[in-house]
Amino acid sequence: MNLAFLIGHFPPGAFGGAELQAEGWARRLAARHRITVITRRDPPSQPAIERRDGFDVVRLPVSRVPLARTKSDAVRAGLLDALAEAAPAVRAAVVAKLDVVPNGIDLPDAVAPPGGRVLTVGRLIPEKGMDVVIDAVAGLQGQLTVAGAGPERERLEARARRHGLEARFEGFVDRERLATLLREAWVVVLAARRGEGLPNAVLEAFAEGRPVIGTPIAGVRDLIVDGVNGLIVPPGDPHALRDALARLSHERGLAERMGRAARETAAAYAWPRVVPRLEAALERWAAR
């Protein structure tokens, strides 16, 4: 089957969880299908056409056309609700052609004992709520690691200094370094205000047996079960986040129990579990 992946950026270069997922899917599906990745040529020095790992990468001039995210069940439901209002006549046809397959994750063989740091991962932009994380961790005099790059870095570093917070800004990290940072952490925080699909950061934390404190936005709600494998707090609320961190820290055995549940959640998203789901969807589409 001929398959095309449409993605804003593609490794190497600037990339995040969505781009890593596209690369992982393309590599795994190339053994059975003809895969073409269509992405931006950004920076212009990148080759326009490239073949790697058994698939083709086609880079086109930069486009700023926004795309709808449909990589989680919560986002799928929201998209169909919006479609019902805007174009109810075509909703049924879209439902018949819309399948959601979750992100895949490499599951480590074993879980390392937790370290002592709070870890947050993501682009340093206002939507990710890194300022909220800094304020919350500072309220507990904790140790914070921030993994990610972006235009807000200087402002966030200054905020941490004003608090006297022991914060380490790692910048962009590769997968090997991220695994190290997860082992150094005892909890991972995703304080996004908006703009998430099915966050890789949550899956990666779960795979390492780390509980996650997140906000109740689409995608996160598909992964975090409040009080089971993590905690849910309102977006933009450093006091609620601080209280959640304090609860995990002080309630005996809670972080450990949630870490075990997180690992069990991650197991359902291991690549050998999710690839057959997409193959099944492709077979259904081919049959139609």
From TrEMBL:
Residues 118-264 form the Glycosyl transferase family domain. It comes from the Bacteria. One of its GO terms (molecular function) is glycosyltransferase activity. InterPro entries: Glyco_trans_1. The lineage of its organism: Bacteria, Candidatus Eiseniibacteriota. This is Glycosyltransferase family 4 protein.
